[in-house]
Design the sequence.
């Protein structure tokens, strides 16, 4: 097998979907019950859009990609992050779409909609600074966790009541809930420390350390939960949490600073990172564990957010008045 001598040539997106505004946050639903295709939510300064997309890799009758907007929600507040609830189902009638946004006014907003006439937004208040990430408890979806620049991680019920809060040592940047064990939560802090909490005792049971700052994004490999990844400074870092608190692998990836890290949901050895829009175009890099260089380089003038499709080696990124999709050739 030939290893690549250098990074692959940068390429533009495989598919794109137009948007009325620059897309800041984008998230594929990681859950089943999405009907044919995949649910995706994205948004910017004023809107959140829920849509359905299907790709030729899933259905041979489709040429490239098929996209349909299911509903556009005009809100007039900037969305910073989006999380899907496992209660969402569009397999049956009536449809139920449930997701939560972290917004620029330091509030969470929980959307419940049947994609017709019945839509509610429950406002959840309590954070005193910018909210960086949020996640639903993945089995029943009855709780939401969020982390903020206010140095707290908070857990809420769906009525907006704060159930638990714990203090962090620095801004909370990323959150992941264990896919089977609802009492385990990963919290990544800007100071480079990633802790795993037991939600019964509210104690950290394990931590790993980047050894550098600032950590801006981290992710737990939900297909193989001994693997954790993050970006800090210009580098990506990977840990095997059963072996050491120090990274097993670390490589420079983005000259202008790395912004996001996400594991593929389809292949536990694939992960993606994005860089800051710096002097050059923003770059999306797709990496395969064991390959010294990125196996795919995507480039766009503006790139924000990052999400993997549930079953395909496909990433979505927010762009300038569009959502961009890159398919990785395996």
Sequence:
């Amino acid at each position: 097998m030939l290893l690549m001598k250098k990074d692959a040539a940068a390429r533009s997106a495989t598919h794109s979907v137009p948007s009325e505004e620059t897309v800041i946050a984008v998230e594929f639903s990681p859950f089943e019950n999405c009907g044919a295709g995949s649910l995706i939510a994205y948004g910017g300064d004023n809107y959140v859009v829920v849509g359905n997309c299907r790709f030729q890799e899933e259905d041979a009758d489709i040429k490239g990609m098929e996209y349909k907007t299911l509903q556009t929600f005009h809100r007039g507040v900037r969305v910073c992050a989006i999380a899907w609830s496992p209660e969402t189902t569009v397999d049956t009638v009536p449809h139920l779409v449930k997701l939560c946004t972290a917004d620029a006014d330091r509030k969470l907003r929980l959307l419940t909609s049947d994609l017709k006439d019945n839509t509610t937004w429950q406002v959840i208040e309590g954070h005193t600074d910018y909210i960086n990430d949020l996640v639903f408890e993945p089995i029943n979806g009855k709780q939401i966790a969020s982390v903020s620049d206010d140095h707290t991680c908070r857990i809420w019920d769906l009525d907006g009541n704060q159930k638990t809060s714990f203090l962090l040592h620095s801004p909370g940047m990323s959150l992941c809930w264990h896919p089977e064990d609802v009492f385990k939560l990963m919290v990544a802090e800007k100071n480079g420390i990633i802790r795993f909490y037991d939600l019964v005792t509210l104690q950290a049971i394990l931590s790993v350390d980047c050894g550098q700052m600032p950590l801006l994004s981290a992710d737990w490999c939900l297909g193989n939960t001994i693997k954790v990844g993050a970006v800090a400074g210009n580098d990506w870092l990977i840990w095997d949490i059963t072996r050491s608190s120090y990274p097993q692998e670390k490589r420079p990836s983005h000259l202008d600073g790395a912004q996001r890290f996400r594991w593929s949901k389809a292949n536990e050895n694939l992960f993606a990172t994005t860089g800051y829009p710096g002097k050059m175009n923003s770059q999306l890099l797709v990496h395969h564990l064991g390959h010294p260089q990125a196996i795919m380089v995507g480039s766009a003038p503006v790139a924000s957010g990052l999400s993997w499709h549930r079953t395909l080696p496909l990433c979505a990124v927010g762009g300038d008045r569009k959502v961009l999709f890159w398919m990785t050739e395996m």
Notes: The two ends are 14 Å apart (CA to CA). Residues 88 and 97 are 5 Å apart (CA to CA). The chain has no helices and 28 strands. The first strand starts at residue 15 and ends at 18.
